[in-house]
Amino acid sequence: MSNLNRLRYASRLFDQWPVKYDRWFETPIGARVKEYENELLLELLQPRPDEMILDVGCGTGIFTINILGLGSRITGLEISYPMLERAVLKAINHPFRAVGGDMRYLPFVDECFDKVVSMTALEFIAEGKQAVAEMFRVAKKGGVIVATTLNRLSPWADRRKKEADSGHSLFKQMIFRSPDDMRALAPVEGTVKTAIHFLKDDDPRRAPEIERAGKKKGLDTGAFVAARWVKK
Fold this sequence. Notes:
By secondary structure, the chain is α/β, with parallel strands linked by helices. 39% of the residues lie in helices and 20% in strands. The protein has helices spanning 3-15, 18-24, 28-45, 64-68, 81-90, 128-138, 155-165, 179-183, 207-217; strands at 52-56, 73-78, 96-100, 113-118, 139-150, 191-195, 224-230. Strand 1 (52-56), helix 4 and strand 2 form a beta-alpha-beta unit. The longest helix has 18 residues, at 28-45.
């Protein structure tokens, strides 16, 4: 399959999911997932006012809006135009620029962003090293790159693989990576952490207790794995 055809296929894959994606994060357990994913994202990225940040695979902007709220200026790149349209609506009163494109071939010049972030987009491409290399290319020297994905070591991944076997169209396309897999994607050493130690069927009221225990133990089996690198 040519790069153009892969681009078109990926776009069609996500076009049907914007509303479902946002609604899941409004469920009791989805809201907990969003809370702890966002907490780890901001801890690693540390966005600051007026920084120029590239959000690679920004989706519907559900996490982008939290970074914008801290005063950063964001360019959001997304392969699905329906998802990008929702991101634009969410960010209507913020400094947000929307760009359609493929994370493996970023349409930007070298070293033009202070920081680069990608939230749960890497699981949809096999060329993880290529995508991370592109993030490094467009980041300024000394800039921070944060990439997150779904953890292969998590029970959530096992559940999603079973749903994929049952025909779930989105989960069938996922490539799950472990913390070590994430470390191997970059040319420099970085920091890797996980979050979401509770399960989908757990009582949302117990999620904070479970999350604190997993964080205290330093578990590498959280459903959400995040890597942070600094460009030298």
